[in-house]
Task: inverse folding
């Protein structure tokens, strides 16, 4: 199949399925990840561009957080869609493996699959969790869950299990220490690392100002 045709069809499919999505995980998150992934892929060699783009587009197609923790539903939804489009089976499996392995979930989960394409899409997704956008998404997620913004009596917990992480009931400021500030050192690609640096510094400035304004 012509590469741009399957990409266009996937864009339409994803846009449609995100129609009533919550703001941190909507079409525009996917769109930013898609753009970041393209940018990173441009400076990598020996990669399958089509796999990068399709995995970026489909990576949050059915997030387990919004499906009772079911981690199979996302990869399976992507698999069904690509199969229904008659997409090459081997490449389809690669896209599905990326979707299965992309998530952070406390940072303690091991990958069961490795590829350069996964490295790229994971970096692209991580970039959208940091910097100004990352800050907006943290508080959006916290508001969606009804979490506190800040509570000095509850300290960040870096030893969370995947299950605790997934509950996500801690004050939003703690999430900076539990995830956002750790991401710059977890970037897989050189371009991803470079892009993460500026966003990381912005978050540090933001936190500095936040604590200046907090009266304890
Ligand atoms: P991942 O699956 O890679 O762990 P998520 O899908 O959980 O990432 O996160 C989506 C967005 O919601 C991110 O921007 C993330 O920082 C934010 N988020 C996730 N968990 C929390 C939390 N407990 N408090 C505040 N924001 C959160
Ligand atoms: Ni995502």
Result:
């Amino acid at each position: 199949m012509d590469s741009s045709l399957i990409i266009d069809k996937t864009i339409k499919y994803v846009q449609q399925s995100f129609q009533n999505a919550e703001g941190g995980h909507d079409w525009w998150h996917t769109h930013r990840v898609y753009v970041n992934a393209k940018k990173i892929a441009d400076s990598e060699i020996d990669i399958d561009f089509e796999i990068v783009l399709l995995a970026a587009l489909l990576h949050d197609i059915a997030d387990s957080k919004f499906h009772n923790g079911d981690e199979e539903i996302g990869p399976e939804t992507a698999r069904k869609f690509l199969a229904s489009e008659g997409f090459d089976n081997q490449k389809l499996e690669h896209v599905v493996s990326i979707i299965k392995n992309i998530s952070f979930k406390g940072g303690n989960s091991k990958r069961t699959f490795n590829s350069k394409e996964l490295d790229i899409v994971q970096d692209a997704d991580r970039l959208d969790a940091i910097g100004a956008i990352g800050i907006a998404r943290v508080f959006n997620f916290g508001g969606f869950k009804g979490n506190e913004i800040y509570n000095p009596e509850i300290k960040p917990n870096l030893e969370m299990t995947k299950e605790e992480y997934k509950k996500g009931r801690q004050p939003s400021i703690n999430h900076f220490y539990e995830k956002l500030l750790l991401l710059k050192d977890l970037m897989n690609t050189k371009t991803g690392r470079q892009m993460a640096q500026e966003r990381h510094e912005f978050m540090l400035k933001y936190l500095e100002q936040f604590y200046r304004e907090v009266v304890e």
User: Anything to note?
Assistant: Residues 24, 103-105, 129, 134, 137-138, 141-142, 168, 170, 172, 175, 179 surround adenosine-5'-diphosphate (ligand 1) (CB under 6 Å). Residues 9 and 124 are 21 Å apart (CA to CA). The chain has ten helices and no strands.
